Amino acid sequence: MVRTRLPDPGPHGDPGLQPERTTLAWGRTMMALVTVSAIFLRWLPHHGFPILLLFAVSVAAAAAIYLTQRRRYGASARGISREKVDADTSAVLWTAFAGVALGALGIGVVLAG
Fold first, then answer.
1. What is the sign, positive or negative, of the torsion defined by CA atoms of 4, 9, 13, 15?
2. Which residues span the membrane (predicted)?
3. Rounded Cα–Cα distance for residues 54 and 52 (Å)
4. The pLDDT value given to residue 61
5. pLDDT in tens, 66-93
6. What's the Cα-to-Cα distance from 98 to each of 40, 45, 67, 87, rounded to whole Å?
7. What integer pLDDT is reported at residue 33 of this predicted model?
8. 73 CB contacts (<8 Å, ≥6 apart)?
9. Count of CB atoms situated within 10 Å of the CB of 46
């Protein structure tokens, strides 16, 4: 009989709960921002140095997600244990701000070039 090891349930006791799904979603957002920053570097020869501002914003947003991921997961897991989970509205607002800033800067760079 083959035994498989179950994932660590974490401090809340259930490996399939919201903190894991939320962590995966933030990880996908971070990877999308890293991918977009690589695409911005490909635009550098055509649009010039203003594209570096787009690169900097996308890399900074990805780094912020990476650096706050552990804290966000811990807060969600503790919230489930206490049966009171607070939404991380500041992270969502900063990510939305970064998306709007990237869009505005992108339009500006394309129109200027």
1. negative
2. 25-43, 49-68, 89-112
3. 5
4. 94
5. 998 888 888 887 877 777 877 788 888 9
6. 15, 24, 16, 19
7. 94
8. 19, 22, 23
9. 10
**What are the tokens at 47?**
């649009």
SS3 readout for 69-105? HHHHHHHHHHHHHHCCCCCCHHHHHHHHHHHHHHHHH
pLDDT at 10 over 70: no
**Residue pair 10/22 in contact by the 8 Å Cβ criterion:** no
Quote the tokens at residue 96. 């939305």
How far is the C-alpha of 53 from the C-alpha of 50, rounded, in Å?
6
- Over residues 41-53, the pLDDT tens digits come to 998 998 888 899 9
**Would the pLDDT of 65 be above 50?**
yes
- Say what the pLDDT of residue 79 is: 79
* DSSP element (H, E) containing 21: helix 18-47
